[in-house]
């Protein structure tokens, strides 16, 4: 008899639960008045926050593309637009001048702080009632699921 495509009973709805969680979390992030105030699309906000969280000399367009599954051309346009808007800057990597490192301008730093604060509020709302140990265990389990799936494929 073939395996039940819904999986074993305890995890039958796991993929639906994860999809619903991701959708609701993204909806909350997108519905933020911070995006409207800053005049950013959700993907632009994601790039600004990505650069804001990255260690020094680590944020590159290629890393953002790999992390999000976006194609390099789309990311190049995002970077160009955010540089033109005065939020991002590009400079050569100190160890490899062929690589452009992304950084934040003072306005970009302010935007990143606002975006990351909103993301933290949504995260805290989502984890209400969880103990620190439960939140850490959940993060570890979700990390394992992500690792099991491997890197995001680049989009078209």
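Q: What amino acid sequence fits the structure above?
A:
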């Amino acid at each position: 008899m073939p395996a039940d495509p819904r999986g074993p009973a305890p995890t039958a709805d796991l993929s639906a639960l994860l999809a619903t969680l991701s959708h609701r979390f993204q909806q909350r992030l997108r519905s933020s008045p911070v995006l409207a105030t800053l005049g950013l699309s959700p993907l632009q906000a994601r790039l600004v926050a990505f650069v804001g969280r990255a260690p020094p000399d680590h944020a590159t367009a290629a890393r953002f593309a790999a992390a999000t599954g976006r194609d390099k051309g789309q990311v190049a346009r995002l970077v160009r637009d955010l540089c033109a808007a005065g939020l991002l800057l590009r400079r050569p990597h100190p160890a490899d001048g062929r690589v452009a490192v992304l950084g934040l301008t003072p306005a970009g730093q302010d935007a990143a702080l606002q975006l990351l604060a909103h993301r933290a509020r949504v995260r805290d709302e989502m984890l209400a009632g969880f103990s620190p140990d439960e939140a850490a265990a959940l993060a570890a389990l979700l990390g394992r699921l992500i690792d099991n799936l491997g890197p995001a494929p680049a989009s078209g």
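Q: And what stands out in the fold?
A: The longest strand covers residues 88-92.
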